[in-house]
C-alpha cells in the first residue's frame, strides 16, 4: 500500500485506489477499502454526494423500490436508527440519507467534488492508472474503480432550433437545485418514461397548461405510496438480518415479495383478474410482474397483464381518445422498465393537461415560441425533457479510457460492452466496473447489488495487495463466454423484443446489445463468489 502522498500545491496525487463517482456505489466502496487501510480517493463531478439522487431533482422524483429495502445493510446501527418517512422515498429523503451516511462515516474528506473525470490511462510499465479531471488534476493509483452509475449521462434529442427557444428548458436528470416554479406557465414535457410519468402530475398542479408529448405509450402500475407505517417499520427492523439475507438470495434483491409458482395462462380468467387486481392494489412493479411466473417469458401470458393494465387506463381516463392513446400496444409489459405512477393517468382528466401524439406527428423543430410538430405549433413558456439517458455505457464511454497498448474502451466496446462478470473488461487491467453492463445492475435492487460488488472488489484488491500481485485482468475467452451467457439468458425472455434502453435502442446509432445480466442477483452472487474462491478463476493475475 502507498502512504498518502499528496502535496498541497501539486496537481498530481498518488493513491492505492481511485473511485470515480460518489453515489451509493462509490461511498460504500470507499468505506470498505478505507476500513482495510487503503488510501482511496473518490472523484465526483457533482458538488456533493448522491449520484443519481444528486442530479435527478425533478418534481416527483421518487424511488421505485421500497426504502426499507433500498438502503445500505452494512451498518446495523444505521439501519436501526434511520427513519424513512414514506414507503417509496422521494428524492430529497434519499439524498438526505446518503448525505447522512457520508457524514456519519466521515467519508467526505476522501472525495474531490466538482471534478469531472476526462480520461483514465493505464501505464503498463508501472501497472498504474492515471486519472485526469477537467481541472487538470492527475490522480495515480494501481486500481481504478468506475462507480459512475447507469443513468448518469442525460440525453436531449437533437431537435433543431432548441437554441432559438425564448423560454427556459430543463432535463429531468440535470434539474436545478432551486425550486422551479411553473405557476401560470405553459409547459411542454417530452418523454413518458419513469421520469415523465413522475413529473406529469406534479407540474400539472402548477402549470397554466401542460402538454405531454408522447412518442410511446408506457405501462405503469400504482406505487401505492404512503407514509411509513410505524409498526411495519419496527417489524422490519426487528427482522433486518433475515430480510437482508433474503434480499441477497433473491433474483431482484428484494425480500418482500412472493416468488410466483403459477403460469398466467394456466389459471382461469377470473382467478387471473383477481390476482392482478390484488397486485394492482398492493402497489410496486416487481410484485405486479411477479403475479405469475411467466409474464416475462411467454407472450400470451404477458398479454393478459398488458390487457389488464389497458383496461385500468381506460377506466381511469375519462376521454376515450386520450385513454386509447395512453394504452401501450407496441411492447410487452415489463420489457421496458415498468414505472410506478401516482395519479399519472388520472392527471389526463384535468382541463389543463393535453396529451400530444408525437408518434404519428413527430416533433419537427423547437421554435422561439415552443414546439412545432408535424401537425401543429404549441406555444410554450418552458420545456421539460424527460428524454432519458445514454444508459449503462454512456458515462463509462464519456471518459477516454485507455488500457493495454493504448487501446480505448470506446474502440473495444464499439459493438457493445464486453465484460467478464460485468466486473472487468479484458485489456484493461486493475480496472473495475461497478453494477454496469454484464452485471444484474438495473434489473435488481441497486443497493444490495452495490454492496455485493463493493465487497467482491474490495476483497479482490485486498487479496492482490496482500499477495503482492501487481496486475489482474479478465481472460478474453472467458469474457466472450460470459457475454454469450448474458445474451442467452436474455434471449430466453421477452426483454430483447422491446425498443428499450436495456438494448441501447433510445440512442441513435448505439449498437443493439442486451446489457444487464438478468439471471438474478442470487445466482450472480454465487458465480462471483465461486470465481473468487477458485483463486479468481477466469482472471490473469501476476
Ligand atoms: P426513459 O425511460 O429512457 O424515457 C425517455 C422518454 O423520452 C421515452 O418516453 C421516450 O420515448 C421519450 N423520447 C426520447 N427521445 C424522444 C424524441 N426524440 N421524441 C419524443 N420522445 C422521445 O428515461 P427516464 O428518464 O424516464 O427513465 C430512465 C430510468 O430512470 C428509468 O427507467 C428508471 O430506472 C429511472 P420512446 O419510448 O423512446 O418512444
Please render the helix and strand layout as text.
Elements: E1 5-6, E2 12-20, H1 24-35, E3 40-43, H2 52-55, H3 76-81, H4 91-104, E4 111-112, E5 117-123, E6 128-133, E7 138-146, E8 168-171, E9 186-190, H5 194-206, E10 209-214, E11 221-222, H6 230-238, H7 240-248, H8 269-282, H9 285-289, H10 299-316, H11 320-326, E12 340-341, H12 344-347, E13 353-357, E14 363-366, E15 370-373, E16 377-379, E17 382-385, H13 394-397, E18 400-402, H14 409-412, E19 431-433, H15 446-466, E20 472-474, H16 476-491, H17 521-533, E21 539-541
Parallel strand pairs: 2-3, 2-7, 3-4, 5-18, 7-19, 8-17, 9-10, 9-17, 10-13, 11-12
Antiparallel strand pairs: 1-2, 5-6, 6-7, 14-15, 15-16, 20-21
Helix pairs in contact: 1-15, 10-11, 15-17
User: What fraction of the residues are assigned to beta strands by DSSP?
Assistant: 15-25%
Q: Output mean pLDDT.
A: 96
Low-confidence stretches: 1-9
Largest sheet: 9 strands, mixed
Structure class: alpha/beta
Q: Please tally the helical runs, counting DSSP H or I stretches of 4 or more residues.
A: 17
- First and last CA, distance: 17 Å
Shape: globular
Total strands: the figure is 21
Indicate the percent of residues in helices.
Answer: 25-40%
Radius of gyration: 23 Å
Bound molecules: ligand NA7
Amino acid at each position: 500500500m502507498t502512504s498518502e502522498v499528496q502535496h498541497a500545491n501539486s496537481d498530481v496525487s498518488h493513491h492505492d485506489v481511485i473511485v470515480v463517482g460518489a453515489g451509493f456505489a462509490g461511498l460504500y466502496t470507499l468505506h470498505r477499502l478505507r476500513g482495510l487501510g487503503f488510501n482511496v480517493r473518490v472523484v465526483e463531478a457533482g458538488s456533493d454526494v448522491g449520484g443519481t439522487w444528486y442530479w435527478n431533482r425533478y418534481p416527483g422524483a421518487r424511488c421505485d423500490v421500497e426504502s426499507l429495502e433500498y438502503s445500505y445493510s452494512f451498518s446495523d446501527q444505521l439501519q436501526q436508527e434511520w427513519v424513512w418517512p414514506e414507503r417509496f422515498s422521494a428524492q430529497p429523503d434519499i439524498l438526505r440519507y446518503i448525505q447522512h451516511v457520508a457524514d456519519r462515516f466521515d467519508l467526505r474528506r476522501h472525495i474531490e467534488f466538482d471534478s469531472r473525470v476526462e480520461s483514465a490511462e493505464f501505464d503498463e510499465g508501472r501497472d498504474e492508472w492515471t486519472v485526469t479531471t477537467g481541472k487538470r488534476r492527475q490522480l495515480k493509483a494501481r486500481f481504478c474503480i468506475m462507480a459512475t452509475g447507469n443513468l448518469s449521462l442525460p440525453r436531449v434529442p437533437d431537435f433543431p432550433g432548441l437554441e432559438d427557444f425564448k423560454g427556459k428548458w430543463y432535463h429531468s436528470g440535470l434539474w436545478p437545485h432551486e425550486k422551479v416554479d411553473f405557476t401560470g406557465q405553459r409547459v411542454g414535457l417530452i418523454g413518458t418514461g419513469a421520469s415523465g410519468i413522475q413529473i406529469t402530475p406534479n407540474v400539472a398542479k402548477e402549470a397554466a397548461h401542460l402538454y405531454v408529448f408522447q412518442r410511446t405509450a408506457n405501462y405503469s402500475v400504482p406505487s401505492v405510496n404512503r407514509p411509513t407505517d410505524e409498526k411495519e417499520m419496527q417489524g422490519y427492523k426487528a427482522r433486518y438480518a433475515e430480510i437482508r439475507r433474503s434480499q441477497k438470495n433473491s433474483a431482484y434483491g428484494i425480500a418482500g415479495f412472493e416468488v410466483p409458482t403459477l403460469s398466467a395462462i394456466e389459471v382461469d380468467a377470473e382467478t387471473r383478474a383477481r390476482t392482478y387486481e390484488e397486485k394492482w392494489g398492493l402497489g410496486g412493479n416487481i410484485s405486479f410482474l411477479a403475479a405469475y411466473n411467466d409474464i416475462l417469458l411467454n407472450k400470451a401470458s404477458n398479454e393478459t397483464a398488458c390487457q389488464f393494465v389497458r383496461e385500468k387506463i381506460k377506466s381511469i381516463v375519462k376521454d376515450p381518445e386520450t385513454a386509447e392513446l395512453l394504452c401501450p400496444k407496441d411492447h410487452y409489459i415489463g420489457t421496458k422498465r415498468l414505472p410506478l405512477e401516482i395519479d399519472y393517468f388520472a392527471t389526463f382528466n384535468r382541463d389543463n393537461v393535453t396529451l400530444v401524439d408525437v408518434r404519428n406527428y413527430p416533433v419537427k423543430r423547437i421554435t422561439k415560441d415552443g414546439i412545432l410538430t408535424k401537425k401543429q405549433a404549441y406555444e410554450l413558456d418552458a420545456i421539460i425533457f424527460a428524454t432519458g439517458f445514454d444508459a449503462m455505457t454512456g458515462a463509462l464511454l464519456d471518459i477516454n479510457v485507455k488500457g493495454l497498448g493504448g487501446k480505448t474502451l470506446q474502440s473495444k466496446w464499439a459493438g457493445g460492452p464486453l465484460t467478464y462478470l460485468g466486473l472487468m473488461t479484458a485489456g484493461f487491467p486493475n480496472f473495475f466496473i461497478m453494477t454496469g453492463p454484464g452485471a444484474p445492475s438495473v434489473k435488481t435492487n441497486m443497493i444490495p447489488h452495490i454492496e455485493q460488488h463493493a465487497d467482491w472488489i474490495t476483497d479482490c484488491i485486498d487479496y492482490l495487495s496482500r499477495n503482492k500481485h501487481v496486475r489482474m485482468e479478465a481472460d478474453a475467452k472467458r469474457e466472450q463466454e460470459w457475454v454469450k451467457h448474458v445474451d442467452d439468458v436474455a434471449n430466453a425472455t421477452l426483454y430483447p423484443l422491446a425498443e428499450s434502453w436495456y438494448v441501447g435502442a433510445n440512442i441513435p446509432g448505439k449498437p443493439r446489445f442486451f446489457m444487464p445480466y438478468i439471471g438474478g442477483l442470487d445466482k450472480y452472487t454465487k458465480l462471483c463468489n465461486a470465481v473468487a474462491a477458485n483463486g479468481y478463476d477466469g482472471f490473469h493475475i501476476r
